[in-house]
Design a protein that fits this description.
By secondary structure, the protein is an alpha/beta fold. The chain has a single domain, classed as Metal-dependent hydrolases (TIM Barrel), CATH 3.20.20.140. It is 45% helix and 13% strand. A nine-stranded parallel β-sheet has the order 10-9-8-7-6-5-2-1-11, sandwiched between helices. A two-stranded antiparallel ribbon has the order 3-4. Helix 1 runs antiparallel to helix 14. It is globular, with a radius of gyration of 20 Å.
Length: 357
């Protein structure tokens, strides 16, 4: 019991020491959304990731892909698919991703670990036992994880391909997950499209109302809504900024944040000076509620890794220095520093409780 507690505290102190130095440095951004592996569970070596980060990227929230693209010989013969859009074969939940991420993280020297915030994502959000998976991962790999996600509820082209039940915002299994995250202090990164692909003109976004209801049910859970609800085909509707404003301006959603990760999101934000101005206006009014992320999947080069950050150049150019700093770095640090502290505290007390049984 005492040894486990000491190890956790030592890791926390080492990470804190790195943070105190790094957060005063001149790096350009933290990355709130990064996939170390792809849809066939291959990816960037974690030591290579540190090289890609270099002196330009401070910290990164890392996770795998919770879904494996099946290679069905009946469907694709010898053409091995590597992406969900390259095959009609289904996707299935791949829980080993969490162990793979944890072991990769633990292969790093302690000081380098301080630059990464691993996330648990290998669970099925339709399964009432999903919470048990998350708990087991925390117990098996103490001192590693700070959050859960990115996991998906509604996502264009992906949700219908997943074997088993379709995920739902009304599922009690999801409520259990969010309640557990609140109790432990885990950050939650959730992908949920705000609407269906190709909606009828003038219709209300299909999943906006249910998503807001879910968020209101969990006021004690720190939730990051990935991509502001936008997708490859689920595009920002004319009232998208107004919908975001309604959430940001409502104290019932004080615990909700948005990330602007993915090149598919960036292309809409920088599509025109007017679009960029609208997003910048939201950020200036609510500078503490947005995080930058790349949503890169196993990049092989620095140019690939930095491309989304560079794509957002028109946005960085119009934001005030203070707001830009918060979106690029400070908001990440505040959210994940708090998560690290709370999760390590839970792990310490839980380890003592388990040992004392």
């Amino acid at each position: 019991m005492k040894r486990t507690h000491t190890i956790l505290l030592a890791a926390a102190l080492l990470n804190t020491a790195w943070l105190s130095n790094a957060q005063t440095s001149s790096y350009e951004f933290d990355d709130s959304h990064f996939h170390l592996t792809n849809y066939i569970q291959e990816g960037t070596d974690i030591h290579r990731l540190l090289e890609l980060m270099g002196n330009r990227v401070g910290r990164v929230a890392i996770f795998g892909i919770p879904l494996q693209q099946q290679w069905s010989y009946r469907v694709d013969a010898n053409r091995a698919p590597t992406y969900y859009l390259s095959s009609d074969a289904p996707l299935y939940y791949y829980s080993f991703t969490d162990a793979a991420i944890a072991m990769a993280y633990k292969s790093l020297p302690e000081q380098q670990r301080g630059r990464l915030d691993p996330m648990i994502t290998g669970f099925n959000p339709t399964d009432m036992y999903a919470v048990d998976h998350i708990r087991r991962v925390l117990e098996t790999f103490p001192g590693v994880f700070s959050g859960i996600g990115e996991f998906t509820i509604h996502k264009e082209f992906v949700s219908p391909k997943i074997a088993g039940e379709v995920a739902s915002l009304q599922d009690p299994a999801l409520d259990r997950i969010l309640d557990f995250a609140a109790g432990v202090g885990l950050v939650v990164l959730i992908h949920n499209d705000i609407d269906v692909p190709f909606p009828k003109e003038g219709s209300e976004p299909a999943y906006l109302g249910p998503m807001k209801t879910l968020l209101k049910r969990h006021p004690n859970t720190t939730i990051i809504w990935a991509h502001t609800g936008v997708g490859r085909v689920v595009r920002p509707i004319k009232k998208h900024a107004e919908n975001l404003q309604a959430i940001l301006g409502d104290t019932a959603f004080h615990h909700v944040y948005f990330d602007i990760s993915w090149d598919e999101v960036a292309k809409y934000v920088v599509a025109s000076p007017e679009a960029t101005k609208i997003m910048a206006g939201l950020m200036e009014r609510y500078p503490d509620r947005f995080l930058f992320g790349t949503d890169e999947v196993a990049p092989s080069s620095e140019s690939n890794y930095l491309r989304v950050f560079r794509q957002y150049a028109p946005l960085w150019n119009v934001l005030t220095p203070s707001t830009s700093e918060k979106v690029r770095k400070t908001n990440y640090e505040q959210i994940f520093d708090e998560a690290r502290h709370r999760v390590r505290t839970w792990e310490s007390s839980h380890a003592e409780a388990v040992t004392g049984r």
